[in-house]
Amino acid sequence: MTLLPLLLGKPAAWDLATAQTLIPSLLGHLAYGAVTVAVLALLSRRERQIGPGLLVRASAAGLFTAAVLGLGRHGLIVGALVGASYAVIFGDPARVAALPRFAAPPSASRGGCSRR
Predict the structure, then answer these.
(1) Alpha-carbon span 107 to 89, nearest angstrom
(2) Taking Cα atoms as reference points, which of 108, 103, 96 lies closest to residue 46?
(3) Quick one: what percent of the chain has pLDDT higher than 70?
(4) Most-buried pick from 34, 44, 73, 101 (CB within 10 A)?
(5) CB neighbour burial string for 46-72, b if at least 16 within 10 angstroms, e if fewer
(6) pLDDT tens across 20-74, in order?
(7) How many whole angstroms separate alpha carbon 116 and alpha carbon 107?
(8) CB within 8 Å of 84: residues ≥ 6 apart
(9) Mean pLDDT, to the nearest integer, of 5-15?
């Protein structure tokens, strides 16, 4: 609606008819982004701690948010899925924070580098 027309040298089209015709494109871009993030998160080597309790808490948070926003039945389903996907992508922050990030190099334990 904005960026693509401007890149093509056309004026931005901010009207209801254009927005309605571009809804399928928006959903496609959102789905593409969600799949890309999920694949990159699953392929990353970062340690993630995922448990059933985390999935339940994240899904409940998504359900609660969808209910507060008044998104309806379909919104509740999307909220639960978004909450669960957040848990899968990022893991449990409390458990991840407790994991060691890296091992100190041997020279660091001697108080600096040695010169010869």
Answers:
(1) 35
(2) 96
(3) 75
(4) 34
(5) eebebeeebbeebbebbbebbeeeeee
(6) 888 888 888 878 887 887 777 777 766 667 778 888 888 898 889 888 888 888 8
(7) 14
(8) 55, 58, 59, 62
(9) 85
At which residue do the structure tokens 């359900």 appear? 63
DSSP conformational letter for 99:
S
CA distance 108 to 105: 6
Weakest-pLDDT range from 8-12, 38-42, 82-86, 111-115: 111-115
Confidence band of 96 (pLDDT split at 50, 70, 90): low
d(CA 68, CA 88) in angstroms, rounded, equals: 23
Closest-CA residue to 58 (of 81, 94, 83, 38): 83
How far is Cα 58 from Cα 60, in angstroms, rounded to an integer?
5
